[in-house]
């Protein structure tokens, strides 16, 4: 990615760039994208027989590429987009090709190879297509950030947050606050203009202090109802602990829905912590950790293993104390702990009754009884604790948004203090109006970063550096 100093210049260029645009990994089809002024000329130099017509639509073509020194004609579907009606706002062609990694690379190389034609494209940098889209006005800052968040998403919650970001909720909050501040600022500035006419007060100090306080409250409510970007990175951790042979690993597999770990009647079969992503209900997710069973360590290594397991259990967001139902034991529960009675298929009437009285979840990994109930209880616990659960409901708040809204809040606080000081001093008008106006203008500037009015180059460079090539 280019350095911030020359970033805008580079991204606003219109030379043709090309890259694989489909995600890595095997798939039936892959996409190669080329965009820029000379796109059609470059492509046509590499097409066999049928040439592209510069008209929006799909054409069937064959592209000449070189694979291991041999010329190969690759069949493709070309999706033609004419400027400005494309993602980048420039002439663009997307080739839909058989999804073989080396074939896709060969097509990009052919488009960028000067030996394949008089004109050639350049290999795109990470995020360069999106950067062009942003600078040509076809992509808003939030849409760009949403793409970046989608690329880095590691869970459904993060993908969902990216979707929410695309709806522009945060921008609307900032725009509403900016509109209100603009109204207050206009009145304060009117006061400055009429300062020689003592009886004219565009807005009284009392009204100004109240107006500023209202905007400040709205901003803090918006911040509180949103999920910080950082918390999306951390999934809640649910750890299974209990005596050896309690059925932890079997429960682990039953919750995951497949045989991920070894289970056996031999005590001590799990020797290390095993972590997997667990799908809960309503799109929630958590990390599920299977741990070695609790036993008296017979040697130094076993002791170390027990310590590590206990440490992992203590650090978990939610602790599942696994106890076979036939064992006479006290259920343990707490804000972070839940008892799970295992092997309910082996229960006699007495142990069933006892477990019922004590509470907790009754499960059988053998016949699946209680597994869905446990999943629901875990989902509810994750929701209650507010761990990421809120992320699906509240819009995501990127670090950039958070600091911009916080700056605006601070500046509004200063403006409110100044207005309040006038009220306390018994003055009708807010003075010195110039200072308050300056603070309101600074708050507007801070909000402008979210609302898209003012976007420093370094913010752009930092944002697009998070993209991958082809996006
Ligand atoms: N009948 C019945 N047997 C079960 C159930 N769950 C586990 N078992 C059996 O209990 C034994 C121990 O199961 P594991 O899942 O390996 O127990 P663990 O708690 O992971 O054991 P360690 O890893 O040694 O601590 C195995 O023989 C399982 O087949 C169950 O729900 N019903
Ligand atoms: Mg085990």
Give the overall form.
flat
Task: Indicate the structural class.
Answer: alpha/beta
CATH superfamily of the largest domain: P-loop containing nucleotide triphosphate hydrolases
Rg, Å, rounded: 31 Å
Element-by-element helix/strand order: HEEHEEEHEHHHHHEHEHEEHEEHEHEHHH
How many DSSP-defined strands? 14
Question: Which band does the percent of strand residues land in?
Answer: 15-25%
Strand order of the largest sheet: 3-4-5-2-1-6
Domain module tally: 3
Q: Mind telling me which CATH architecture of the largest domain this is?
A: 3-Layer(aba) Sandwich
CATH topology of the largest domain: Rossmann fold
**Overall pLDDT, averaged?**
84
Largest sheet geometry: 6 strands, mixed
Percentage of residues assigned to helices = 40-55%
Report on this model:
The protein has three domains: 4-140, Probable tRNA modification gtpase trme, domain 1 (Gyrase A, domain 2, 2-Layer Sandwich), CATH 3.30.1360; 165-228 and 396-451, Four Helix Bundle (Hemerythrin (Met), subunit A) (Up-down Bundle), CATH 1.20.120.430; 237-387, Rossmann fold, CATH 3.40.50.300. It is 45% helix and 17% strand. The chain contains 16 helices and 14 strands. The strands form three sheets. Strands 3-4-5-2-1-6 form a six-stranded mixed beta sheet. A hairpin with a 2-residue loop joins strand 3 (57-67) and strand 4 (70-81). The structure holds guanosine-5'-triphosphate (GTP) and magnesium ion (MG).
